[in-house]
Amino acid sequence: MRLVVKGMRCQKNCATRIQSALEAVPGVASASVSFKDKAATVQCDASVSAVELIHAVRSLDAGATKSFDAYMAGDDRSVRIVQLGVEGMSCQMNCAAKVQAALSEANGVQAATVDFEHRVATITIAPGSRITETDLIVAIESIKGKKFKASVHDPSATAPAVHETAAAPPAVTVVVHPAVETGDVTLTVVGMTCNSCANSVETALRSTDGVLSAVVNFATESAYVKFAKDKVGIRSLVEVVEAIGYEASVATGVDDSCVGREPARRGRGVEAPAVPLALLYLSDRDSHDGARQHPAS
């Protein structure tokens, strides 16, 4: 078996140490390491895997903050760039940071960054790593206590030719909402201190399954949400806002200029006639009582 070995600085010390490490692997009969050729040739039993030999080399301390690397001759050593779309993030500081940490800790990942604004994670895969896009998606969706969803954002990131990118329709996702019964509500949101807070609330609402649109106004401390009634309810929308640290309730006493007033006005219209009818009844009764008492006086 032949390995490419990187990181050696001499034959006498580095190559000799690597040769000893390879020969110490159970099942290896002999090993020859050449500093000049940057290679190792290993004679071993069929039971010995390349992974064991590579691990033996990489586990050695190369000193001076250096490290040895080894891989099978012929392996692809180019760096891969993968981009994933991430849904469900509501802020940069917490959500995006957790996604970035989970990706960075995945075996074979050299670096990872998360663009919260565009909901895209960019991952640099180490040369020779066998980690796949599916592995990275699982790493994101397995984050404890979160419900992130991830998918391949740009499958052609490693082949940026214009005609190839333009001819890749799977990179574009079109969501068509079927004709369903919709509702809308205006929520009062307490606890926002800036427009960034409003953006976080808006993002959390928009990321909720069943929400068709959401607009949050920091100045009026309100959130107007349009939603599919068969998928999400008002109570759930309130809980979404409360889950990210703000207080929320259905707005009351909104005036004609407030978005979402129409559903509230319809709700109050049922009880509004009851008050005038009661007053008319009391007024009529008083007039009759006065008429009966007048002759006696």
Automatic annotation (TrEMBL):
GO terms for molecular function: copper ion binding. Keywords: Copper, Metal-binding. SUPFAM superfamilies: HMA, heavy metal-associated domain. Residues 1-65, 80-151, 183-249 form the HMA domain. It comes from the Eukaryota. It holds the Pfam family HMA. Gene3D superfamilies: 3.30.70.100. The keyword Metal-binding applies. InterPro entries: Heavy-metal-associated_CS, HMA_Cu_ion-bd, HMA_dom, HMA_dom_sf. CDD domains: HMA (cd00371). This is HMA domain-containing protein. It comes from Saprolegnia parasitica (strain CBS 223.65).
